[in-house]
Specification:
By secondary structure, the chain is an alpha+beta fold. It has one domain: Nucleoside Triphosphate Pyrophosphohydrolase (Alpha-Beta Complex). The chain has two helices and seven strands. Strands 1, 2, 3, 4, 5, 6 and 7 form a seven-stranded mixed beta sheet that branches.
């Protein structure tokens, strides 16, 4: 592998509790996704497994613990940064179930508010790109896994 190759890894979670999924609204800091709604998640640190990174990120962002995390989506996207080379990122999203009590404690430097959204509810706006589709797929996966088990 070339020393010049740089890539990132990202994990995110559709966290379910009582049939609803958790969305977080980013701060209005003018940075990436400012004021938009997203799923909890973040970067994988060197030496972490995806599951370890997911537990750390969800804990840092919400204080929640979860169980039964299983991947349901993977993608590759490119982050374009001013004055720097584009960064390819591999993203894995997990479906997980929050452990009670599911009362998020937000990190105020990252998120302004949270919302639990059901499968028939309108999603809050504005959303980060792709979040609507991820939520739809998470509910579909949750329905299919509940039928099997």
């Amino acid at each position: 592998m070339s020393k010049n190759l740089r890539a990132g890894a990202y994990v995110g979670a559709a966290i379910l509790y009582r049939g609803r999924v958790l969305l977080l609204r980013r701060t209005l800091d003018g940075g990436f996704g400012s004021g938009r709604w997203e799923l909890p998640g973040g970067s994988v640190h060197f030496g972490e497994s995806p599951t370890e990174a997911l537990r750390r990120e969800v804990s840092e962002e919400t204080g929640l613990r979860f169980r039964n995390a299983a991947p349901f989506d993977a993608s590759i996207f490119v982050v374009r940064r001013r004055g720097r080379a584009p960064l390819p990122v591999v993203a894995v999203r997990f479906l997980a179930r929050a452990e009670p009590p599911a009362l998020p404690r937000l990190s105020p430097d990252e998120h302004l508010e949270y919302r639990w959204v059901g499968p028939r509810e309108r999603l809050p706006r504005p959303l980060l790109p792709g979040v609507s589709e991820l939520v739809r797929r998470a509910f579909a996966r949750a329905r299919s896994s509940s039928r099997r088990g």
